[in-house]
Amino acid sequence: MSASAQNEHFEELSASEWFYRNRDIAGFTNPARAIYATVREILENSLDSSEMIQVPLKFYLRISRVGEKGEDREETLQVHAEDNASGVPREKIASAFGRVLVSTKYRLRQTRGTFGLGGKMALLFAQSTTHQPFTVKSSVGGRHPIIEYSMMIDIERNAPKILKRRRHQNPHGWHGTVVDLTTRGDYNHARSKILEYLAKTSIASPYAEITFVDPDGLLYKFEPATDQMPAVPGVSKPHPVGLDLEMLRRLIAASKTTNLQAFLCKHFQRVGPITAKRLLQSAGIHQRRDPHKLDAAELLQLSNAMNGFEGFKAPDASCLSPIGSKQLEAGIRKQLDPEFVATVSRKAASYSGFPFICEAGIAYGGKIQPARIDRVPLIRLANKIPLLFDEGGDIARAAADQVNWHLYNVEQEAPIVVVTSLVSTRIPWRSAGKEMVADRPEIERELVNALRECARQLGRFLSRRAKVAYERKRLGVFEQYLPKIATFATRLAGKEKVPDVKPILRQIAKYGYEDSEDSDD
Ligand SMILES: Nc1ncnc2c1ncn2[C@@H]1O[C@H](COP(=O)(O)OP(=O)(O)O)[C@@H](O)[C@H]1O
Ligand SMILES: [Mg+2]
Among 38, 40, 45, which residue has the most ligand 1 atoms within 8 Å of its CB, making it the best to mutate? Predict the structure, then answer.
């Protein structure tokens, strides 16, 4: 060992310390992004939790300035958020909010949270910029009391530090969570993104009622468009494809099964005794071996065989919770107020052993502003989270760019908005900030298909509308001249009574003729 290496100081970071030092990857890049990410993480936790108990979310958020509005872009902000969701069991409150990488969402099912990190990053950021404790008040309802913690995160130990704990009566069985924190941020520069985020969330989760009071005292209300909740995502066992060596090793260590074939059937979805046997044959390992006694080379052999084996059925999609075609339409109508909407929710598909569902919507006309079709305006959703940044590198942009809009009668400049939604137990994020979905050919294909299905509906609507417009014009000409011809012809024939031209107009009209009031009788 060289002398310099010997003098090197080795040090271990706790999980919270590491994430705090690397907060950029969780989206806390600058003061504006920090307050935006704070809102986003708190709301996403409330949405996840309300879907779990199937109670339409009522979410109240207030951000206020501490002190006067200063010259600085950065200011001290107080964030108060309330929900009526599941609440957190009292013995879990401290670690759910005070320990990074603690989560109820590590199991294989679809949620917005992924890393056991989001809410805590907001708290860590708040604490390290203002040195103030935060408060969490929560109850799971029923006869349970309301527990209130005033706490901080001990960053070096990655542990909650409780400063005050109070217990309140809960006579009405209230359930939900209230979070209060003091943080630094730049609200003025975050305002438009926060409002855009809330509006788009209300498209993706149209059952939610979101109320927001901003630091200038302005009230924004996003009303629900439906009371239908999306299905509760189930928990599923892992699919053998896509499982890495380390996960396989851990599953074996945790299992009591001493027979490899039985182990595969018990711990994986889509594996029955026959599939397990064929898989083990392809791996060259005997089916009755004890999984705990496999050596490193055999483990690798098994893991490779699992990933290469083609005899598995597609992964189980019951762990997914898509928005749903009707709900997506309701959300789009409520927020965008268009003339026409088409939505689809595709069947489940899979990539690398993870199930996913693509959904899409196209809104046209009405209150939508015209935009250039070669850069069609896009609302991207992933696990029902709106993505507002880094659109250029996202798979949805690539998919939308593959649609040839002219084929569907869309003009060069058109009042159109395209919505894409991808739900999966594992969204292939490009970063922990969760803003960009990486490309996977299977997902891209499904997105393009979903968009084309909607585009075909739009195409039919537009061509019918064009025909109707053409017919109206044609009928207008007849309407104008037929009475004149009739009068003239009557006079020419030396008759008194001018015949009624309406029956003729009715015959000519392909899309129905309505007697307009100003037509002469
Ligand atoms: N509003 C809430 N309602 C119910 N549970 C919550 C709420 N906020 C946070 N939690 C719990 O705290 C855990 C940690 O949250 P968070 O740090 O955001 O990580 P993640 O969402 O990735 O799990 C969640 O898994 C959840 O169990
Ligand atoms: Mg979260």
Answer: 45
**Closest-CA residue to 69 (of 194, 191, 216, 209):** 216
Ligand at minimal distance from the CA of 137 is 1
Please tell me the predicted confidence (pLDDT) of residue 247.
Answer: 82
pLDDT tens digits for 223-269? 999 999 998 888 888 888 878 888 899 889 999 999 999 999 999 99
CA distance 351 to 239: 11
Q: Whose CA is nearest to atom 8 of ligand 1?
A: 45
Q: How far apart are CA 69 and CA 246, in angstroms?
A: 52
Provide the 3-class DSSP secondary structure of residue 73: coil
Rg (CA), the chain: 30
Residues in the chain: 521
CB 178 near ligand 1, within 6 Å: no
Judging by beta carbons within 10 Å of its beta carbon (0-12, 13-18, 19+), is residue 346 exposed, middle or buried? middle
- State whether the beta carbon of 385 lies less than 6 angstroms from ligand 1: no
DSSP lists the bridge partners of residue 364 as: 340, 416
**C-beta 114 within 6 A of ligand 1:** yes
CB count, 10 Å around CB of 520? 9
Half-sphere exposure of 396 (CA within 13 A, CB side): 29
Sequential DSSP letters for 201-248? HHHHSTT-EEEEE-TT--EEEE--S--PPPPPPPP-PPPSTT--HHHH
pLDDT of residue 92 exceeding 80: yes
Mean pLDDT of 102-130: 83
Selection from 468, 488, 486 nearest residue 478 by Cα? 486
Contact of 312 with 240, CB cutoff 8 Å: yes
Q: Alpha-carbon distance 321 to 103, whole Å?
A: 19
Q: What is the pLDDT of residue 520?
A: 39
What string of DSSP letters covers 140-197?
Answer: ESTTPPEEEEEEEEETTTTEEEEEEEEEE--TT--EEEEEEEEEEE-HHHHHHHHHHH
Question: Among 22, 12, 100, 87, which Cα is nearest to 57's?
Answer: 87
SS3 343: strand
513: Cβ–Cβ under 8 A, 6 or more apart, which residues?
475, 502, 505, 506
> Which pLDDT score, from 0 to 100, does residue 519 have?
41
Q: Which of 434, 335, 336 is nearest to 381 (CA)?
A: 434
Task: Say how far apart CA 38 and CA 30 lie, in whole Å.
Answer: 12
Q: Which residues pair with residue 165 across a beta bridge? A: 149
Return d(Cα 500, Cα 521) in angstroms, integer: 7
From residue 393, how far is each of 366, 430, 441 by CA, in Å? 30, 9, 14
Q: Give the DSSP letter of residue 269.
A: T
Q: Is the distance from CB of 367 to CB of 337 less than 8 angstroms?
A: yes
